Amino acid sequence: MTAGTTSPTQPVLLREPPRFSRDRVVQAWIGVKALSDAGDAIWTIALAWTAVQVASPAVAGVVVAAGTVPRALVLLFGGVLADRADARRVMILFNALRVGVLVGVALWVLAAPPTVLLLALAAVAFGVCDAFFEPSASTIGRRLVRTEDLPSYSAVSQTASRLATMGGAAVGGVLVAGSGLGGSASANALTFALVIAFVAIWLRPRFALPRAEKESPWRGIRRGVTHLRGTPTTRTLVLALSGLNLAVGPAVGIGIALRAHGAGWGAEAVGALEACIGLGAALGALSVTRWRPRREARAGFAALVVQGVAIVALGLGPLASAIAACLVVGVTAGYASALLSATFAGTVDPAYLGRMASITRLGDDVLMPLAMAAFGALASVAPLWVPFALYGGAMAALMTVPLRRRLFRELSLRG
């Protein structure tokens, strides 16, 4: 890394990794993880569809969101575990627990119809498993590839994950219609079993990260917060990554539907606009592997400024301009996410990487419902372009803050 780094300690090389373009183990891991993401999408569709069938809309909404609160409560403990334990063992353990939950659901529905209690318990169990799994999984790239290869790794893995999620959602509707909740649960359990087998047999870290000292979980959390306060570069990255979705999430999640309804475009336009965002995100992430900038952080934050402008444009004009704005939102999202997540993994102190990842995820989980509600409230009392303009303008303005810092303008992951 050049132009400064926040890592006082560096990962220790255990075995020399091949070039990313020839790294078959990492490429296979990306494929296996993408398959698991497709299985998750299948399960999510099945859970939502089944909840709607067995409960009122209000109760169904509570069931689908039931995993969010326990995940938020446990995430910081998951970050402490990620910085102390072996990431592979944590991933294997909690994927095995997920398999157990899914097999239990499949066996239940063979004997009796699904109930609200069953669905809620499954959602809560998945939320808790996510809280422990995700912080450890977020460190695995740092253990597999060189720092200079992190942008390519992030770009390819994020693209594979997005495409797999889209494909899994499409398959999920067909599968739940034909095989019900049990078939969908079994399909997702199979993908988790494949992840367990791959991690246990083939995935071997090339770099050893320093481990946090053994202490109480609460003290580990406090130590992580202290580290965040005392490390300005890490703090800026955590705040930026935590807020990445807070502007675009409401604009896409509720804003597009409101625009289509108000302009009379129809439900088909909602699907087309969201598909443009997904396609653009895949293209933006893949472009990093082909045309990687020298200064990753500067390019990533600059792309988010452009994304803020595109969010403003999304609230104005005819359908054609909305399609163009969605493509720009998608491209900049994929491009910036690949670059900034790589910068995050490559510059955060490895001994705190899991805790910083959990704080990043926690910010998104806690603040997104508020951001969605605020967008809807603004849209109900003001012209629809107003929330788009406020959210997009705020994002563009906030992303100029790190661009004014010399460190982020000059930071490079190239050795």
Structural account:
The chain has 415 residues and is mostly helical. The chain folds into 2 domains: 189 residues, Up-down Bundle (Growth Hormone, Chain: A); 194 residues, Up-down Bundle (Growth Hormone, Chain: A), CATH 1.20.1250.20. Helices cover 80% and strands 1% of the residues. It is built from 16 helices and 2 strands. Strands 1-2 form a two-stranded antiparallel ribbon. α3 runs parallel beside α5 and α7 packs across α13. The protein is globular, with a radius of gyration of 21 Å.
Rg over alpha carbons: 21 Å
End-to-end separation in angstroms reads 5 Å
Q: Can you identify the CATH class of the largest domain?
A: Mainly Alpha
Percent of residues in beta strands?
under 5%
The count of domains is 2
CATH topology grouping of the largest domain: Growth Hormone, Chain: A
The parts where pLDDT drops under 50 for at least 5 residues are 3-7
Sheet with most strands: strand arrangement: 1-2
Which structural class is indicated by helix and strand composition?
Answer: mainly alpha
Total of DSSP H or I helical runs spanning 4+ residues: 16
Give the % helix. over 70%
CATH superfamily of the largest domain: MFS general substrate transporter like domains
> Topology as H/E string?
EHHHHHHHEHHHHHHHHH
Structural shape: globular
CATH architecture of the largest domain, please?
A: Up-down Bundle
Give the overall pLDDT as a whole number: 85
The largest sheet is: 2 strands, antiparallel
Query: How many beta strands in the DSSP annotation?
Result: 2
User: What would you call the quaternary organization?
Assistant: single chain
